[in-house]
Amino acid sequence: MAERRLTDLAPRRFRLRRGWLALSVLTLALLVWFGLPSVLRRLDFFRVRRVEIAGLQYLDPTKVMSALRLAPRASVFDDADPLVRRLRAVPGVINAEISYRVPGTLQVEVHEAVPVALTPRGDRLALVDAGGRVLPFDPVGSVPDLPVLIGGGGLVAGALARVQDYNPEFFARVDAAWRVGTDVVLEVAGRWFWFDAQPTAEDIRAVTAVEQALSRRGRPFQELDGRFAGQVIVRWSRA
Questions:
Q1: Hey, where are the domains in the chain?
Q2: Cβ distance 184 to 146 under 8 Å?
């Protein structure tokens, strides 16, 4: 009987030992996972010595470096979230991504706001985004080929952003834009193109198709009005 009991207990003891072994391995793995970065963070070998910045078209890289506020002993094992929050707080930055490459490289990718127009601001021109907000980018340094927003703020800037998305070729020809009531006028080579505040891809396609047809026939015009669904009104001269 005693021999039988010992035989029954053997597999049970083996299972208990195996369970304790698995628990010990898991505990060790957790300690390594959470404790190792803390140890490695103190090593000079993993100190950030190089910063790579991608995605910049308008912002000065020195502004990005200043916003990061890297500590003298910053490590590739530091938490990246504080750095991302600092970059997102920079005017003109929509988002940012941070990654590390061992042993000592910090990789930064910045997503800037996209300018859609230039607008008079004092005695100079400033860049504005699709919401009509002035961006802290230097238009002289970036030399953007953008239309001039004469007035209308966010309403006109939003319409320009739609044109930029739907028909970049047409957008590249726009010289100026302004607001008339609740509508938007775009000037292209001295001629006016009328749209409502939210032109669709079909609106823009219809107007440019009429423009091309008139050009092929040698018919000069002064205005094309695309504010009415299903039709484009041609005005041969401005009253």
A1: 45-112, 117-235
A2: no
